[in-house]
Write a structure and sequence with these properties.
signal; 4% strand; electron transport; iron; heme binding; mainly alpha; plastid; two-stranded antiparallel sheet; 2 strands
C-alpha cells in the first residue's frame, strides 16, 4: 500500500499510529481514571468512553485556543491543573464547579464576574463558540479537564516546558 510513497511511509505509519491511539484511548482508560469529583461534598461520577471522546473534541474546539495543554495563555499563573483548580474560590476541581465557571466565570478569588473577558454561556453573544453548548456539553468538557492530569500527568497545566 505504501510502496509508491516509500519515503513517506515511516511518517505516515507514525501518524496512523497516533490517530489509532487517540481514537481508542478512551476505551483503554480504567474506572479509576474515569472517576472524577462531581461536587465539593465528595460525590464522584464515572465518565463513559463516549463522554471522554466528546469532551476532548469539545474542549479542543472551544477551549484549547487559550487552554492548550491545561495552561492559561492569558495568565500563565492560573492553569487547569488540579492544584490551581482547587485553590480557586469557589473550588473548580469538580464537575459542578467547572460547569458553574463555564456558565458564569469569576476572577480566581471569586470576587468579580469576568464574563466579558472569558468565554461563557452568560456571554455567548460575545463568544459565538459558547452559543450552542448544552449542559451535557459542559459536563463532558469539565470531565475532560478533570481526567487529563490522570492521563498526561504533570504535562497537564505544566506550561511551556511540555508544549
Amino acid at each position: 500500500m505504501f510502496q509508491r510513497f516509500s519515503c513517506f511511509s515511516p511518517i505516515l505509519s507514525i501518524l496512523l499510529s497516533i490517530a489509532f491511539c487517540n481514537a481508542t484511548y478512551a476505551i483503554e482508560l480504567d474506572e479509576a481514571t474515569l472517576t472524577v469529583p462531581l461536587n465539593t461534598s465528595g460525590k464522584t461520577t464515572i465518565l463513559t468512553p463516549e463522554q471522554v471522546k466528546r469532551g476532548k473534541r469539545l474542549f479542543n474546539n472551544t477551549c484549547s485556543q487559550c487552554h492548550n495543554g491545561g495552561i492559561t495563555k492569558t495568565n500563565p499563573n492560573v492553569g487547569l491543573d488540579p492544584e490551581g483548580l482547587s485553590l480557586a474560590t469557589p473550588p473548580r476541581d469538580n464537575i459542578e464547579g467547572l460547569i458553574d465557571y463555564m456558565k458564569n466565570p469569576t476572577s480566581y478569588d471569586g470576587a468579580e464576574s469576568i464574563a466579558e473577558l472569558h468565554p461563557s454561556i452568560k456571554s455567548a453573544e460575545i463568544f459565538p463558540k459558547m452559543r450552542n453548548l448544552t449542559d451535557d456539553d459542559l459536563f463532558t468538557i469539565a470531565g475532560h479537564i478533570l481526567i487529563q492530569p490522570k492521563v498526561v500527568l504533570e504535562k497537564w497545566g505544566g506550561g511551556k516546558i511540555y508544549y
